[in-house]
Amino acid sequence: MAKTHTxxxxxxxxxxxxxxxxxCPQCGSFNSMMEEVVHEEPFAKGAGNLRGxxxxxxxxxxxxxGGDVEDRVHLPIGExxxxxxxxxxxxxIVLIGGDPGIGKSTLMLQMAMEMANxxxxxxxxxxxxxxxxxxxxxxxxxxxxxxxxxxxxLLVTETNLEVILNHVRDSKPDLLIxxxxxxxxxxxxxxxxxxxxxxxxxASQLRELAKSSGISVFMIGHxxxxxxxxxxxxxxxxxDTVLYLEGDxxxxxxxxxxxxxxxxxxxEVGVFEMREGGLVEVTNxxxxxxxxRLINAxxxxxxxxxxxxxxxxxxxxxxxxxxxFGNARRTPNGVDFNRLLLISAVLTRRVGLKLAEHxxxxxxxxxxxxxxxxADLAIAAAIASSWKDMPVRAEAVLIGEIGLAGELRMxxxxxxxxxxxxxLGFKTAIVPKAIRKGEDYPRGIEIIEVRSLDxxxxxxxxxxxxxxxxxxSA
Length: 474
Ligand code: TYD
Ligand code: MG
Hints:
Strand content: 25-35%
Radius of gyration: 26 Å
CATH topology of the largest domain: Rossmann fold
Helix content: 25-40%
CATH class of the largest domain: Alpha Beta
Number of domains: 3
Bound molecules: thymidine-5'-diphosphate, magnesium ion
Largest sheet: 9 strands, mixed
Number of strands: 23
Number of helices: 13
Distance between the termini: 82 Å
Strand order of the largest sheet: 8-7-9-10-6-11-12-13-14
């Protein structure tokens, strides 16, 4: 007879314990331990067959292991392929996370419809009915001026993983999409769908399926309110690639970001725009992000941020306004709060801007989130520009990290950033003075090298009729 016992599993991090604990000793969250029943037997005996394992493995010399290059399938959505490292790797398992309503299901359906031209695709949904998915597919189709739904795209609404695996066995797809991992369950486990144990076990079985059959598996994962994928760490270890679809729900742009990728560069970003007809690729994001810029308005500066291997130009807006209620506020949108505190403090102490009695707002246009310190200088310039009510030179970009002493530091990949700025018609770049010139700066863009924030602002802020004040140092 199957031996059963219970254990307590933290729903945040997956830590198991024999008895209840109010606070998880691993991740420190409170009240996250839930009781789950464990059946020993099915996993001890039948598990090998269940997971398609042969139980036999054989070590080989590395030189004789097959597969010199990964087998990739071409993915016609360029921005998506870029994030994956160039197409879908056969037998890989990919997790796509993101806030509710951000467009995960839309993206997966678009991919499924594209891939179904050349491959067999099985789309399993635990959230929407087949009719609902078809309605969405028809809308996507109409927007792309196509007439027919692909025959090779199979839909099923199902949440039981054993049944799903049977469907896979019967229909033999090349690509399996599971929307979402939190809705599917294994009937031989007693915990409810979406609990850490279910999510972990279901994901492991899908991985075994991918590895043993060569089917590529994409699964959607929900994000908890703190921004982590529910059952987070456990899932990230199981899959090959973790992608996040992010963006401001009230803005059109969506960023698909890879945070882990066994088959390509991490931190790679694909940019999409959510339209009537689904997600549309934005192949030149810098241009899109700068499209609505007001030239010569105070409180706006252009930063060049590296998103993966690609430089992207973004407009940063700053606004300072006298504090109404005593406590000056710092309100960032798209940049880190602590970074804004630091930049405001450096502007106050090293440049002499009296920000103590001013609220400071910073906004990154387009709804993207910038984590890179290379944007510091542009943030500082936007704030200073608003405070002094002097516009930043319209044809200049600002690149550099700010130190506590008001000194500027050189970020990486300067040449790539400058090339992108030049490509978009910017004439001047204000950058930290390099001690050693490691990279070849492009010609045709004037480089103003500065040592401190003070000098940078001097060069960037324009007084009427005085555009050439920036001292060009060698
Ligand atoms: P969805 O893919 O259902 O989000 P998720 O699976 O991440 O929860 O996307 C839902 C949003 O996308 C919804 O608010 C409507 C919008 N949308 C469009 O704007 N255009 C479209 O063509 C589609 C299909 C969705
Ligand atoms: Mg969805």
